[in-house]
Design brief:
Shape: elongated
CATH architecture of the largest domain: 3-Layer(aba) Sandwich
Number of helices: 8
Strand order of the largest sheet: 6-5-4-7-8-9
Distance between the termini: 25 Å
Helix content: 10-25%
Structural class: alpha/beta
Number of strands: 15
Strand content: 15-25%
Number of domains: 2
CATH class of the largest domain: Alpha Beta
Amino acid sequence: MQCSPSGLFWALVTLIFIGACNGGVAKTGDGRTTEDSVSSLDGGGSTDVSSTSDTDPSSTDTSCGGSALATEATQPNMLIVFDRSCSMRKQLDDPSTFGTGADDPSTRWYVAREAVAALTQRFETRMRFGLLVYPRPKLGCEDVPGSSVACDLLTQQPILDALDAPNVPPFDLCHHPKEHADYQPHVTPTDEALRGALTDTSLVDPSRARYVLLITDGYATCDATPESLGATTTLLASAGVKTAVVGFGDVDNSQATDMLNSIASAGGLARANAPQKFWLATDATMLSTMLEAIAAAAVSCRFKLKEVPPESEKLYVSTDGVALIRDDNDGWSYDASDNSITLEGQSCEKLKASEIKQLSVVYGCPDVQCQPSPEYCDGLDNDCNGLVDDGCLK
């Protein structure tokens, strides 16, 4: 069966290895060891691939046979740190006016929530999203919040549920006077929220890339300074966590700008050749576009192989039927330390932009036939039915 491109996502990652296809073979991942995989692929096979290993892939006979090999996507963890301070009640276009409630589409809260909904839906199987909302209800500067939703695949609904939970939207508590039992302190403890992210279990997994996506309407209180915010973000960076900052609303205060610039500069994802080092959104469309650009840049181009190739020199990689060269700068590379292939340069950029519909990795010859496998949630058409992630398994 030939796999045909479809949708906005990629089609299939097909990993075909040839070797001892005529003998009994155990299965890696559900019974077979890596040593078994190497020996079965390298010894006793009837297909001679030595004559094709140094041949131009585009002119090599593709009828080499072989067996499909499942892959494991390495989606990054991204913790959304969401500002729910009382200023989020303000209208986005008129910061002097407060909105009427959480469902008022003119407010910063509504615009930010809808942008997060779109983001987590579009990348629901390509990123592992989590959520930390700050400050928590009826708490202020003394609170170091934890996450409401742990980073995982398919978390759009839990994230929206958390943002819609009673007393989470700022309208539900912020209107109370200070003497009221349900009074919400009018503070924006961004430094405390970043310190909460430091201890989040989703951000200590070294096997995945890890990110904090801070969404805030500006000025941090609770005695925060540009220096203290930069120092906390540096701690995150030292732990291998990069931080992207999106400011929106009336971030025209020089102190607020300095604060967000400090976080962005220390976070490792500062914008180049821009007036601000952070992302500045002034309307709903711009906010959604910026969030999607940040997520797309974080999408992983690395794919772990389920079995170890006997000779990595005999691997061929193609995208949409076109052979790629093995080049660390623009093509593909293989890392023996974790048995993974990575698309590099323009190949990776095209993958991030969903311009690649099919990725094929082949041992011995450039066979690009679609090989059905279980449909996992990874942004690919694993079962070759022309649909991406339909009824997928986490």
